[in-house]
Amino acid sequence: MNSTKAPQIIEHIQKSVAYTAHETRWIPRTARFVSVGVGSSGKGIIQIFELSKGELKTLADCPSVLPHGIKCSTLGASRVEDRQLAVGDFTGGLSIFDLETLDQSQSKSLFHNIKAHNGIINSIDGIGGPSTGPGAPELVTGGKDGFVRVWDPRVKYPVVCLEPKSASQARDCWAVCFGNSYNDEERCVCAGFDNGDVKLFDLRTNSLRWETNCGNGVTCLQFDRGDIAMNKLVITTLESKLRCYDMRTFHPSDGYTYLEERAHRSTVWVSRHLPQNRDIFVTAGGNGGLNLYKYHYPTNRIGKHTQDGASIGIIGTIELLNSRVVSTQPIVSLDWSPDKLGLCCFSCLDQTIRVSIVTQLEKY
Questions:
Q1: Which residues sit opposite 244 in a β-bridge?
Q2: Distance separating alpha carbons of residues 88 and 68, to the nearest angstrom
Q3: Domain limits at 29?
């Protein structure tokens, strides 16, 4: 890695908060982002910050918006003009808040408050909300009870429930995401579990499309774009590993081809693709570091299997563009600005919110 001409990871703002921030999310078409977490009393906290002249201005501060701590959040199922934040809490509650009226009263802000899981909701993702993107707005949640549930925000019951065969076989679901939503009919959900299992569910056919095991607990997974035909999937795990899968060609016995990389010398907690360039992604680790990668496609993405002659995918390579340790504690969430190239916000377990700028990304 030659870092002299590489994109630089520059810290723009650092702000201490009086709670553990578990998730940060940019609010589209604004200079604002929302932070959610849990306070010392165990109650859920939501704050909205705005970038203003090199500082973070607090626009809304709700220190006890929910009786239980908030673990995860998404704006993915909300239209840009509505700005509704869906959150999952430590007791399995799923709630939706109107960010425009968040600091007025809980009764005005709370759209939904339902029992979605038995135990903590570890991960949530949304799709169908932005103005560009087909299909209905939906949420997916993964919980400690091993269930993966798909929700329509307009109703109080799950539209799809993916459950373990028995309670004794249930594994803690740590990560979920949507993908393959390139028209009004197609849509998939990918889920990762604490034992390393990864399962891909086809929502159109209501069937398990593919499954594998990564060898370590899955901490995060994300398609490079959720609203296109499946292209690439990045999975991060415990013990410093990440996998990048080519999701275009499926082999009947070998499945999807992938490459595996070691990063951060600790747990890789987060992976996030750059909205403006799906071939660039960042990972965040337990060492408090950020790694910036570029995916390079092979000359030919499809080959012939040496044994049965069937089509099999050919994986490319990933290049480490730059890395930087920015905290003494793990980085547990990160989100790119959908509007400003290279601008990102993230939270660390040292109770800080940070905003960084990654330069020179336009060259890639």
A1: 234, 259
A2: 10
A3: 15-249+260-289+328-363
Asked if residue 118 belongs to a domain, the reply is yes
pLDDT digits (tens, 9 = 90+) for 171-208: 999 999 999 999 999 999 999 999 999 999 999 999 99
d(CA 270, CA 220): 6
On whether the pTM is more than 0.90, the answer is yes
Q: Which ranges of the chain have pLDDT less than 70?
A: 1-4, 104-109, 130-133
**Interval 292-339: pLDDT, tens:** 999 999 999 999 988 888 999 999 999 999 999 999 999 999 999 999
Sequential DSSP letters for 308-352? T--EEE---EEEEEEEEE--SS-EEEEEE-SSSTTEEEEEETTTE
* Residue 296 within a domain: no
Q: Which CATH number do you get for residue 233?
A: 2.130.10.10
- Per-residue pLDDT of 8-20, as tens digits, reads 999 999 999 999 9
Decide: 122 and 142 in contact? Cβ < 8 Å.
yes
Cα separation, 288 vs 292, in Å, equals: 14
Task: Answer yes or no: is 320 within a domain.
Answer: no
- Cα→Cα distances 204→180, 190, 207, 315, Å: 11, 14, 8, 27
Strands 352-358 and 32-38: unpaired
